[in-house]
Amino acid sequence: MRRDLRELLGPRPLVLAPMAGGPTGAALVAAVTEAGCLGLLPAGYRSATQLAADLEELRARRVSRFGVNLFVPQGPCPDRQALDAYLAALRPEAERLGVELGEPRHDDDDWEAKLALLLADPPPLVSFVFGCPPAEVVDAFHQAGCLVVVTVTRPDEAREAVAAGADGLCAQGLEAGGHRGGTRDDLDGQLPLLDLLGALREVTDLPLLAAGGLGSAAAVQRALRAGALACQCGTAFLLADEAGTADAHRQALQSGRFPATVLTRAFTGRFARGLANRLALAGRDAPGCYPEIHHATRPLRQAAAARGDLEVLHLWAGTAFPLAEARPAGEIVERLCPAG
Ligand SMILES: Cc1cc2nc3c(=O)[nH]c(=O)nc-3n(C[C@H](O)[C@H](O)[C@H](O)COP(=O)(O)O)c2cc1C
């Protein structure tokens, strides 16, 4: 039976962001659920088989209040020539690290298989990023009893999600760490969180999960006062004891070596916010070829991580990263959203 998004939230209006690539795993989802929040498990970069194992682990940890987050597939690279030129510019970095670039292949992140898995064994909620799923997909999840949340960064994307039948929207402000989550991969019309919440209220009364730069209780309260039902925080949990964040990423966040963040396409071919290291800055205007650039740079990023080379690693972080703390997740929840 499909519930209202309000009923699915725990006693605290806080949602753990799905952070693909390691940071959010079953242990972190279980810890925030225990602390009275809703946790979103990322399905991105996981095969359907890996996702099934993650869901099994959540069950073994007796987590029943959770959601699963899926990447909506992207169209093919719009400019092969620009892609080839960008990859040629990356080769000296690859040579320096003694690796070959990966094949710039296109894929759909195992979309159909993951849909089939989740429709056969539905979680309470599915959330989508990188665009709005077709209305048939939203309908199928509704039939299966799931709530559907779509990530939006602009009012036109919100209209699309409303038309597709979404039950709620994740409103991702410009401050957010990680990839921009909307349909279009450009920076036109992208708004800071509080402005975005105001603009979305003009087009829909669906419940909103506010995301982006929320690193303190005061920031969380501001977003709630601006009309959000709950706040979706990612970066604040990157250093949590239970997070699967890579050591190099943890070190970079705490080192003070990178004082700023930047929106860059350098690592994946889609705009994402991360610490402003050398490659993030040099490749910020790389062509919009996702996931081709993600696959091509993977060996480079793996070699850099193994060597502790922080200049060519994707170090996703929102603007509030200096407030992130290395503590148990339950304590981070209490700091962001004190009980009572
Ligand atoms: C390391 C990292 C990975 C992320 N991966 C995903 C993801 O897989 N799916 C998704 O919808 N959002 C992802 N995001 C974005 C979050 O959902 C959210 O918008 C963002 O964390 C909010 O901003 P904040 O990081 O400043 O709290 C990621 C963010 C970070 C920092």
Automatic annotation (TrEMBL):
CDD domains: NPD_like. One of its GO terms (molecular function) is monooxygenase activity. Its cofactor is FMN. InterPro entries: Aldolase_TIM, NMO. It holds the Pfam family NMO. It catalyses: 3 propionate 3-nitronate + 3 O2 + H2O = 3 3-oxopropanoate + 2 nitrate + nitrite + H2O2 + 3 H(+). It comes from the Bacteria. Keywords: Detoxification, Flavoprotein, FMN, Monooxygenase, Oxidoreductase. Belongs to the nitronate monooxygenase family. NMO class I subfamily. This is Propionate 3-nitronate monooxygenase. It comes from Aciditerrimonas ferrireducens.
